[in-house]
Design a protein that fits this description.
mainly alpha, VanZ family protein
Length: 174
């Protein structure tokens, strides 16, 4: 019993550290100027386009590959970043409290707040503009991450419950 509590505490603290790191990283990226942020995403987009070009014949002159792909990549980064934040928070709360639904509800309520604060923070970064669309994308990422974790923990909880019930029936029939 005591080792189980210690494992839960260690797991919760470890995930809290990961969560703080993800939020700090998000904050740090939002602190970049618009030019710095765009330069970073263009570099990543170019690397991805180079990789895709090895397998598909891409027309690099096409406006999609020059502009649109970078914008899609930036929005995908928002989604993935907040899916990770929502996932880590939900797992952390599931481990801490061993309650699936409250962990999901708290995660869905708190995680988007990071996105709102992050967008507000961008107001103070040169050449950056907060966008409501980014908050929607962040929230969709959180919902996706939390939903996947909740389904996973719900299934695991259900399997444990079934195993316990089978064990009880076997004990009764002995």
């Amino acid at each position: 019993m005591k080792s189980s509590i210690i494992r839960r505490i260690i797991g919760t603290v470890g995930l809290f550290i990961v969560l703080v790191f993800l939020v700090f990283l998000s904050w740090k990226l939002s602190s970049q100027t618009g030019a710095q942020s765009n330069h970073l995403s263009i570099r990543i987009a170019d690397q991805m386009i180079d990789w895709l070009d090895r397998y598909f014949d891409l027309d690099r002159g096409d406006m999609f590959w020059k502009v649109t792909f970078n914008q899609l990549l930036r929005k995908a980064a928002h989604f993935i970043e907040y899916a990770l934040i929502g996932t880590v928070m939900c797992i952390m709360l599931n481990i801490a409290f061993n309650r699936v639904v409250p962990a999901a509800v708290i995660s869905v309520l708190l995680s988007p707040l990071f996105g709102i604060i992050d967008e507000y923070h961008q107001r103070f970064s040169a050449m950056r503009t907060p966008r409501i669309l980014d908050i929607y994308i962040d929230t969709a990422g959180v919902l996706t991450g939390v939903l996947l974790v909740t389904l996973l923990f719900g299934i695991v909880h259900y399997i444990k419950k079934l195993k316990r019930r089978i064990w009880e029936l076997e004990q009764r029939n002995k």
